[in-house]
Design brief:
mainly beta; about 45% strand; 2 helices
């Protein structure tokens, strides 16, 4: 039978940090995502993706927005929502089955 399920929705939004606004592809996923998929976490503020105002960035996007400084605890804005960066994951391989993405949002 089916042991577990996860809801995943691809999204493309403008993410702002200060004056920078970039359209990026990401994934909105429910809390079971991290039990089903094993993306390497590089850094986190404990329990990532537990609240609606959190975002996890790829290493690539964190570097674009924050340079060599730590992105953890910093904020990104998507529409009217201010999100706190609670995790950084390794850049996904080009051949992953979820496509090209740069961030995760909780669903």
């Amino acid at each position: 039978g089916i042991a577990s399920t996860v809801r995943i929705t691809p999204v493309e939004v403008c993410i702002r940090t200060g004056e920078n606004c970039l359209y990026k592809k990401g994934i909105a996923a429910d809390s079971t995502f991290w039990r089903m998929f094993d993306f390497k976490k590089l850094d986190s503020l404990g329990q990532s993706m537990q609240g609606p105002d959190q975002i996890i960035l790829t290493e690539r996007l964190a570097k674009v927005f924050f340079g060599n400084a730590s992105a953890l605890g910093k904020t990104c804005i998507i529409g009217p929502r201010t999100l706190v960066v609670t995790g950084i994951i390794a850049n996904p391989p080009a051949n992953n089955h979820l496509g090209n993405f740069d961030f995760f949002l909780p669903m």
